[in-house]
Write a structure and sequence with these properties.
Oligomer: single chain
Shape: elongated
Radius of gyration: 21 Å
Largest sheet: none
Order of helices and strands: HHHH
Structural class: mainly alpha
Number of strands: 0
Number of helices: 4
Helix content: over 70%
C-alpha cells in the first residue's frame, strides 16, 4: 500500500499516472546532484587520461574536435552547467590540459 499517494497498492493501475508524476518530480529535483556527481567523475577521468597519456596538447586538441563535431558550446552559462551538464564545460577541460602542458 502507498498511503502517501492515496493508492491502495502498486497493482492499482489508475494510480500509475500519479506514481509516475511523483517519480518524475523526484528525479527532476535529484538531477542537479546526480549531474554534479557525473561532472566530478568526468573531471577525474580527464585528469587520469592526462596523466596516463602525458600528452596534454593532444588532449586539448581532441576536446576542441569533439566540441566542433558535437556542436558543444565552449563556454555554456553557469546555470546550464549547474543544472543540466553531465560533463565539465569544454573550456575547463581545455584549460586543464593547457595548465598541464605548461608544467611539462
Amino acid at each position: 500500500a502507498l498511503p502517501l499517494l492515496s493508492l491502495p497498492s502498486l497493482a492499482y493501475v489508475p494510480g500509475y499516472p500519479m506514481l509516475l508524476f511523483v517519480v518524475e518530480v523526484f528525479f527532476l529535483l535529484l538531477s542537479p546532484l546526480l549531474n554534479w556527481w557525473s561532472r566530478r567523475l568526468e573531471s577525474r577521468a580527464d585528469r587520469f587520461a592526462l596523466h596516463v597519456t602525458a600528452n596534454p596538447t593532444d588532449f586539448a586538441s581532441a576536446m576542441r574536435r569533439i566540441g566542433c563535431q558535437n556542436l558543444v558550446e565552449l563556454h555554456p552559462p553557469a546555470w546550464s552547467t549547474l543544472l543540466l551538464a553531465t560533463h565539465p564545460p569544454l573550456y575547463r577541460r581545455i584549460e586543464l590540459a593547457q595548465s598541464r602542458a605548461a608544467r611539462v
